[in-house]
Design brief:
Rhomboid-like fold; Serine Threonine Protein Phosphatase 5, Tetratricopeptide repeat; 69% helix; elongated
């Protein structure tokens, strides 16, 4: 006799398909339905009034349990720190992508405060019950974890330096699953599903994506979960599928989902190569483990010589250790890899000036000026190179041009005044210092410069 799955409790039972009056429910659920009808409670024929939602309840319970353990261990119930979330399994690039792959799962059960978990569990309760009733427990559980893990992968790829956690990726996945599952009419035949449910799901998705655009919320995880959910819902077996066919289809879906998740994780690791190692080095520097950070950065830049942020951080470590030639070489590589980065330009030029490498500084800022005549930093740096070489009449027009391009550039007006004083242009220096004092009357350096220029003019 064919095996049928009860749409209420998920239990398998034998059903005589030759009997058109036979119930879709298992004998136990049918007995419960009869008891409810005998008490006068209205029912809908084939659907029980109080179906059990074992999977949804279990998932919510597990999330709440993890949150309770976090609070009992001293974590703030309102605003846990990223480090605290990471300690309990949150997703973060330099750990997840370097071997701690279990964080792709554990991060689904870690939350940043009671508001975060409250909103997520409310959404899970509403979407989860619908999914569990329409799809059955096995399909629901598979879809939840596949969507949630893929959401974690997308999140760690998009924000590899940040700590990410929460059930929202999996919840968005369930919204996507329900959309494709309902749209493709895979729902149980005895449940009347209409376009209103699809409209409600669309509203839920649009509202939460808009909410996810707020600072501090990862829409990457939401979108990743939604996309995977739509795909999984399309390939899951329909509710009316025979038990053998359903198990075969679920097995195939599980296998292909595992392949897709592993492939996605490897791709994320490859595409973010260097970022997670950089975060790890920054963490070591924060712990004052300079030598360990230096070794890690040397290894990173050796394997990825064009990874500009790695070269720039390596240069900072070399500077802190007084290894100036190595620092300059690393900064030059960072600049070569990303020549339009103003930070690398400023840092390299500043090192040249600080080390008294005036010819190198002049050539560097002259090159920047030729590349982009409207770059205020190029004129400012070139002015300082001329000032250090005592070529004051050459420095003055560079500082003037820097101010013309960026009137608020810190230090540019004062440097102009210095060059004018050194060149003996005292009247011009007085005018420059008066302009500074008009904006900041308490600037002591400008006051002293004005006083000196005034005395020299007389």
């Amino acid at each position: 006799m064919p095996i049928q799955r009860c749409p209420q409790c998920g239990k398998d039972f034998e059903r005589n398909y030759g009997d058109s009056s036979a119930s879709l429910n298992c004998p136990e659920c049918e007995a419960r339905l009869a008891q409810l009808q005998s008490t006068g409670i209205p029912t809908s024929g084939q659907a029980l009034v109080t179906p059990s939602f074992l999977i949804t309840t279990g998932l919510i319970g597990l999330n709440v349990l993890v949150f309770a353990i976090m609070v009992l261990r001293g974590v703030s119930p309102f605003q846990p720190t990223p480090d605290q979330a990471i300690a309990f399994g949150a997703d973060v690039g330099h750990l997840t992508l370097n071997g701690q792959w279990w964080r792709l799962v554990t991060s689904m059960f870690v939350h940043f405060g009671i508001v975060h978990i409250g909103l997520n569990m409310w959404c899970l309760w509403n979407l989860g019950r619908a999914a569990e009733q329409l799809m059955g427990r096995a399909s629901y559980l598979l879809a939840y974890f596949v969507s949630g893990i893929f959401a974690s992968i997308v999140s760690v790829y998009w924000h590899p330096m940040a700590a990410e956690a929460g059930a929202s990726g999996a919840i968005f996945g369930m919204a996507g699953v329900l959309v494709s599952y309902v749209y493709l009419k895979k729902t149980p035949s005895h449940l009347q599903i209409n376009s209103r449910m699809l409209g409600s799901l669309g509203t839920f998705i649009a509202y939460n994506l808009a909410f996810g655009a707020l600072p501090g919320i990862s829409n990457a995880a939401h979108i990743g979960g939604l996309v995977m959910g739509l795909a999984v819902g399309a390939v899951l077996p329909a509710a009316g599928t025979s038990e053998d066919a359903r198990r075969t289809r679920l097995s195939l879906v599980a296998v292909f989902a595992a392949i897709a998740l592993v492939g996605s994780a490897m791709a994320a690791k490859r595409l973010t190569k260097g970022v997670s190692e950089l975060a790890s080095a920054e963490q070591l520097l924060g712990e004052r483990k300079t030598d360990e950070a230096l070794a890690q950065l040397q290894q990173l830049t050796a394997s990825e010589p064009e990874f500009a942020p790695g070269q720039e951080l390596l240069a900072k470590v070399y500077l802190s250790k007084g290894q100036y030639p190595q620092a300059i070489a690393a900064l030059q590589k960072a600049y070569a890899a990303d020549p339009k980065n103003a930070m690398y330009q400023k840092e390299l030029g500043t090192v040249f000036l600080q080390l008294g490498m005036l010819d190198e500084a002049t050539a560097f800022f002259q090159h920047l000026k030729e590349q982009n005549p409207k770059e205020a930093l190029a004129h400012f740096g070139l002015g300082h190179a001329f000032l250090a070489k005592r070529e004051y009449d050459s420095a003055i027009p560079e500082f003037r041009q820097a101010l013309a391009l960026d009137p608020q550039m810190p230090g540019a007006a004062f440097s102009l005044g210095q060059a004018q004083l050194q060149a003996g242009h005292y009247a011009d220096a007085q005018a420059t210092y008066r302009d500074i004092l008009a904006r900041n009357p308490n600037d002591e350096q400008a006051q002293a410069g004005l006083a000196y220029a005034t005395r020299q003019a007389h």
